[in-house]
Design brief:
Helix content is 61%, strand content 0%. With 241 residues, the protein is mainly alpha-helical.
């Protein structure tokens, strides 16, 4: 599985070759975070943040195995993240009252999104595009950093998907003008959607650890976009009843 993940991300190394690279690096005293980026001749390609997490968790596991004197073909398998089993849906669509996502809902929602079969995920993304045309137009105008753009767009989709699931038909379409106004000085996401903000911060922490090119400046750009959209989505939820 590690070899397949590496190939999909654009690395010329398979699991055995990566173990050899790690062995030489550890013998030379090189730190892990300096070695892993060298496995990729260009910026790694990922279809989703979950693919990135799975690859890096396996790379970290292999690094530890090599440090313990094992290799990729040892009898004990490299620590591979298991395929997630589909969790139950995070409540019925439109079940939450008010306008704020709860921590329990966010926890169940991201697990549900990560475990969605590809076909269902594609349908949900199509609905995202079709029901939020102004958001798509605004996103095309936003300048994202190259490092973190894919993760930012995925997190924005996940934010919409959580809000759509939580509030159902009470969630309206965003307006381009409102987004343009918000991006000038958006409220921090913690003030409008604290549970969502905690999830976003965790994902950006992972990205910051994995990608040396994703630094404080790049993170601030992504956080600004997410704060703008998070506030706009919250304001687009109609009051109960």
């Amino acid at each position: 599985m590690l070899s397949a993940l590496l190939a999909r991300a654009g690395s010329p190394h398979d699991a055995e070759g990566t173990a050899a690279v790690f062995r030489a690096a550890q013998a030379a005293g090189e730190p892990r975070n300096d070695v892993i980026p060298g496995l990729f001749p260009e910026e790694p390609r990922f279809d989703s943040p979950s693919d990135a997490r799975r690859l890096y968790s396996n790379l970290f596991g292999l690094w530890d195995r090599v440090g313990a004197g094992l290799d990729a073909s040892a009898d004990e398998p490299v620590a591979v993240a298991p395929e997630p089993t589909p969790p139950p849906l995070p409540l019925a669509r439109g079940s939450l009252t008010g306008r704020e996502l709860t921590p329990d809902f966010v926890e169940s929602a991201w697990r549900w999104l990560e475990a969605l079969p590809e076909r269902e995920s594609r349908r949900l993304r199509d609905r995202y595009v079709n029901t939020q045309p102004d958001l798509g137009t605004w996103l095309d105008e936003v300048e994202f950093p190259e490092a973190g753009e894919l993760a930012a767009r995925d997190l924005l989709f996940e934010a919409w998907a959580m809000m759509d699931r939580a509030f159902g038909d009470r969630l309206g379409a965003l307006e381009w003008k409102a987004l343009r106004e918000l991006e000038k000085e958006p409220p921090v996401l913690e003030a409008t959607q604290p549970a969502l903000a905690a999830y976003v911060a965790e994902q950006l922490d992972i990205l910051e650890d994995e990608d040396p090119a994703f630094g404080p400046t790049e993170r601030a750009q992504v956080e600004r976009a997410l704060a703008s959209v998070g506030t706009a989505l919250t304001r687009a939820v109609a009051e109960d009843g």
